[in-house]
């Protein structure tokens, strides 16, 4: 396919790199010379310098009336550039246009996108706020992502000291816990990772990425860590931007008895937020002010979310909050390089809005029919794909044992009607099953081919 990407920031660069590797013809538009030079030097794509909302720049990229461009993705940090680029591209005949929207009002309803002719308009803040709430709720999980429209999820749990899982093989787990719907799809051990198989022995300290139904996550947490999450009582949020506001709003909606403190240094922003939130105590001050945090009871906080616009500040504030006694700290980090520092800093979890947006974009680019939903798991260089088994699929009617799946690929969950279960060797897949596949980034194209998803 011919694809034009407007914006070569963290999201645009990652999407361009992935799609060019898959053999698509990619053109990247970027007006910042440093970013454009990075794309020129590191990626096998065409680079156009300029503002992606200008018709002359888009024309240079091949976006003209009657063009053969299949998809345009606009993912700059400026909504007006993204929307205008998509508007022009759609009228030039580009088949599918995808826009990033930083302003949440653009995605409050489908009206904006529909009226502008934009096929997909995505604000990652909503999905990331859900992820943060889940991390706060399941306190032992260091990473999580929704699956099967919220019915299930993937949770990364460490195997605690004296956990009954330590020393057990995956085969033994099925025997010990026959009523737990869960499967370990990836294990990180001593800085390295692998897709586990039946004979692999788990060890204390392993970080296990586990797929399970949400109604079973509490049982799973107790098995891994020997303890259950306690109800949330107090949460601090530093940063009153779009994401910080979304987290506070969701906490108010989902929990009646949580004491919520939101700290931001901007007085006007604090005054506005205070009128829009009902039960959140909004404090105008410095999130790094130890006296302020202690006065408000940071040492009794079940969670601290650092959601300013600065990655560096969020990491540092998370470290400070942990030192002051916050039970769990979650930092919002947009640069992929910082996401790989989790083993070296005392922050419990890091979430990346850019990664969430990249997942949405990659889903719609790879599966324009809407047949698949993709989750990119950057920390383990792997992907989760949800897709219905289409009519005529070569896998329909086969058991998992008959498929001879290669290493690095496995079926994690199957949803058939109202039933959600972990498939085993003699499980036979049926046409229409909603399956969740885990695979390394290199193996996912093969998995898609086997499924017959388009």
From TrEMBL:
Pfam families: TrkA_C, TrkA_N. Residues 142-226, 371-454 form the RCK C-terminal domain. One of its GO terms (molecular function) is potassium ion transmembrane transporter activity. The keyword Ion transport applies. InterPro entries: K_uptake_TrkA (IPR006036), NAD(P)-bd_dom_sf (IPR036291), RCK_C (IPR006037), RCK_C_sf (IPR036721), RCK_N (IPR003148), Trk_Ktr_HKT_K-transport (IPR050721). SUPFAM superfamilies: NAD(P)-binding Rossmann-fold domains (SSF51735), TrkA C-terminal domain-like (SSF116726). One of its GO terms (cellular component) is plasma membrane. It comes from the Bacteria. Residues 1-122, 232-351 form the RCK N-terminal domain. The keyword Cell cycle does not apply. Keywords: Ion transport, NAD, Potassium, Potassium transport, Transport. This is Trk system potassium uptake protein TrkA. It comes from Aminobacterium colombiense (strain DSM 12261 / ALA-1).
């Amino acid at each position: 396919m011919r694809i034009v990407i407007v914006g070569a920031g963290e999201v645009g660069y990652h999407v361009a790199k992935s799609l060019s590797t898959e053999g698509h013809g990619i053109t990247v538009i970027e007006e910042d010379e440093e970013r454009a030079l990075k794309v020129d030097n590191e990626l096998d794509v065409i680079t156009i310098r300029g503002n992606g909302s200008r018709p002359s720049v888009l024309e240079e990229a091949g976006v003209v009336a009657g063009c053969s461009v299949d998809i345009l993705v606009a993912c700059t940090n400026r909504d007006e550039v993204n929307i205008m680029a998509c508007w022009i591209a759609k009228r030039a005949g580009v088949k599918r246009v995808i826009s990033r929207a930083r302003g949440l009002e653009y995605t409050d309803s489908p009206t904006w996108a529909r009226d502008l002719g934009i096929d997909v308009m995505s604000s990652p803040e909503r999905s990331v706020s859900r992820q943060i709430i889940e991390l706060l709720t399941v306190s032992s999980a260091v990473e999580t992502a929704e699956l099967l429209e919220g019915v299930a999820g993937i949770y990364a749990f460490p195997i605690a000291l004296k956990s009954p899982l330590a020393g057990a093989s995956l085969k033994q787990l099925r025997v010990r816990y026959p009523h737990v719907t869960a499967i370990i799809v990836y294990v990180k051990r001593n800085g390295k990772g692998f897709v586990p198989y039946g004979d692999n022995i788990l060890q204390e300290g392993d970080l296990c990425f586990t797929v399970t139904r949400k109604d079973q996550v509490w049982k799973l947490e107790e098995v891994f860590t020997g303890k259950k999450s306690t109800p949330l009582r107090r949460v601090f949020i530093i940063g009153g931007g779009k994401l910080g506001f979304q987290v506070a709003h969701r906490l108010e909606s989902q929990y009646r008895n949580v004491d919520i403190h939101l700290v931001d240094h901007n007085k006007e922003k604090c005054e506005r937020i205070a009128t829009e939130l009902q039960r959140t105590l909004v404090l105008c001050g410095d999130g790094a002010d130890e006296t302020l945090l202690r006065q408000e009871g940071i040492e009794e906080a079940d969670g601290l979310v650092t959601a300013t616009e600065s990655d560096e500040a969020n990491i540092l504030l998370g470290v400070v909050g942990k030192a002051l006694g916050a039970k769990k700290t979650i930092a919002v980090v947009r640069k992929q390089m910082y996401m790989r520092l989790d083993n070296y800093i005392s922050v419990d979890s890091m979430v990346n809005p850019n990664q969430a947006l990249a997942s949405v974009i990659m889903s719609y680019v790879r599966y324009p029919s809407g047949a698949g939903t993709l989750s990119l798991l950057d920390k383990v260089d792997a992907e989760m794909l949800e897709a219905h088994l289409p009519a005529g699929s070569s896998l329909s009617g086969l058991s998992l044992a008959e498929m001879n799946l290669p290493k690095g690929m496995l079926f994690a969950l199957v949803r058939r009607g109202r039933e959600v279960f972990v498939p085993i060797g003699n499980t036979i897949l049926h046409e229409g099953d909603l399956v969740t596949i885990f695979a390394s980034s290199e193996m996912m194209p093969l998995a898609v081919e086997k499924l017959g998803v388009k």
